[in-house]
Amino acid sequence: QVQLVESGGGLVEAGGSLRLSCAASGRTFDVYTVGWFRQAPGKEREFVAGIGGSGGEIYADSVKGRFTVSRDNAKNTAFLQMNSLKPDDTAVYYCAAAALGGVQWDRQVVRPDDYDFWGQGTQVTVSS
User: Fold this and answer.
1) Is residue 20 classed as helix, strand or coil in its secondary structure?
2) How far apart are the C-alpha atoms of 74 and 79, rounded to whole Å?
3) d(C-alpha 103, C-alpha 83), whole Å
4) Fewest Cβ atoms closer than 10 Å to its Cβ: which of 61, 72, 90, 120?
5) How far apart are CA 91 and CA 108, in angstroms?
6) Which residues of 8-28 are buried (b: 16+ CB within 10 A; e: fewer)?
């Protein structure tokens, strides 16, 4: 069992930055892929970015070049650095974890249903 706790959300002006953290319990954090998802009011949950246990990264086109995902396995923590924020980035941001791997990783990492553990979410609001 893995418990995830997000932090770092808040209110920021367009063009600003925020850094989200996802702290995980458990001793095997490095085997898990961590995915970041977001959900805006009235919209479905969407993939933002993901990072594998060994550090492979993948991003949604909408955030590529602006967001950076990283992890510190020694501290059981993953991060989402968000720069050049836009009002369209306003949403509740969730981190999720699952033991994904193999040739299907690229397909699995973007699908919410493939994740076993979820955090409670943190609100990010970008004002124009």
Assistant:
1) strand
2) 13
3) 31
4) 61
5) 22
6) bbeebeeeeebebbbbbeeee
- Look at residue 124 in the predicted model and tell me its pLDDT: 98
Q: To the nearest whole percent, how much of the chain has pLDDT over 70?
A: 100
Give the span between the Cα atoms of 107 and 110, in whole angstroms: 6
pLDDT tens-digit series, residues 48-87: 999 998 889 999 999 999 999 999 999 999 999 999 999 9
What CA–CA distances, in Å, run from 56 to 49, 74, 77?
Answer: 11, 17, 15
Token match 């702290």: residue? 23
H or E element that contains 80: strand 77-82
